[in-house]
Amino acid sequence: MKRRNTMEFTYSDDLWSDLHKDVHGFRPSEIFMKNLLAFDDETKQNLWDALCEQLEENTKAKKAAEVVAVEKFEARIQDIIKLGAGNRTNALLWMSGTETFYHIQDVEHFVWEQGILFTNYGKQLVKDLAAIVDYKEYDYA
């Protein structure tokens, strides 16, 4: 195995837990972290590079899934318009009609459930819905 110049190492011992969580959705185990400390720099760098590649693949897959979710949601709106809603506003009201909204966070949750909250489309949809839905007062009794 070719030896790297130490200036070429890009991993950070302080960021393993964060990178692992970004890639896998959870922090690494204590055993993983203890084993990691025993690795030489070359092995750590190879593992770091593999995790970074996986993070990039995960990000691309997430973006692709968001594109599909937006397309499906917009197609659903068009179907509801054809079924009688007549326009986008009515279609959105029909789609969200079974929801109870107390706060804008409830609107955001509805959009999040569609898998599109963190897209530009989803952010605009939150604004559109927030302007047309009826908010209920929360009964604290």
Describe this structure in words.
The chain is an all-alpha fold and 141 residues long. It has one domain (15-131). The chain is 67% helix and 0% strand. The chain has helices at residues 16-24, 30-38, 41-85, 88-95, 104-113, 120-132. Helix 3 (41-85) packs across helix 4 (88-95) and helix 5 (104-113) packs across helix 6 (120-132). The radius of gyration is 23 Å and the shape is elongated.
List keywords for this structure.
141 residues; mainly alpha; 6 helices; 0% strand; elongated
Oligomer: single chain
Rg, rounded, reads 23 Å
Helix-strand topology string:
HHHHHH
Helicity, as a percent range: 55-70%
Principal-axes geometry comes out as elongated
Number of domains: 1
The termini sit apart by 70 Å
**Total beta strands:** 0
Please report which band the strand proportion falls in: under 5%, 5-15%, 15-25%, 25-35%, 35-45% or over 45%: under 5%
Largest sheet: none
List the helices and strands and how they pair.
Layout: H1 16-24, H2 30-38, H3 41-85, H4 88-95, H5 104-113, H6 120-132
Helix pairs in contact: 1-3, 3-4, 5-6
Short description:
The chain has about 140 residues and is mostly helical. The chain contains 6 helices and no strands.
